[in-house]
């Protein structure tokens, strides 16, 4: 099956997680980190999920994911609640959600969630059968603005995790500092250099600078301060600014 890799920005977007165990907890934690608005349906939850619900960070419907042919009444959240005197079941309107996660320990429930989400035209991630969903969440390493993702298209999540651990060792915390520097200098170039070919050349050269070596050697902060001073002094023509820039890595 053909796939399209992408990075999603979920801040303020509604996502539904069906399940409240350890797997669901990891999904919820990642979604909260991304700023998503998370709704959870599960009859039980881990301590962390309960704390998030108590703190108002997520909406938790304590009950089972229901079936459309059950007798339901609407609750104030817009979900469907089971008949009084029975264990609550929830069959939510999926239209508000961008992504639906099937993350229970019951394969039949996960399959029903996946089928419902597909029918509603939603992206769906299936924890027990990732190759069946329309969204596969890759193993990821984050270093500030840097995100490295690995997917085996559902063939081996264990291998994805192994490669992810290797990347975590290869790309350490210094890359967060490095990416912040590149972002800072990129914005400076875009605001100060109007000549497009020159701007392109300057931006192309940035990753070749020995910034990581300076971070490792402990000389980065002094070098960065000196570089910024030199750039501020080159407030005249773009040619002077570019000349100082090109020389910056020759120290």
TrEMBL record:
The protein's enzyme class: oxidoreductase
Domain called Siroheme synthase central: residue spans: 143-168
Top-rank lineage group of the source organism: Bacteria
GO-annotated molecular function: ferrochelatase activity; precorrin-2 dehydrogenase activity
EC number in record: 1.3.1.76
Recorded metabolic or biological pathway in which this protein acts: Porphyrin-containing compound metabolism; siroheme biosynthesis; sirohydrochlorin from precorrin-2: step 1/1
Swiss-Prot/TrEMBL keywords: NAD, Oxidoreductase, Porphyrin biosynthesis
GO biological process: siroheme biosynthetic process
Name of the protein this chain belongs to: precorrin-2 dehydrogenase
Lineage: Bacteria, Bacillati, Bacillota, Bacilli, Bacillales
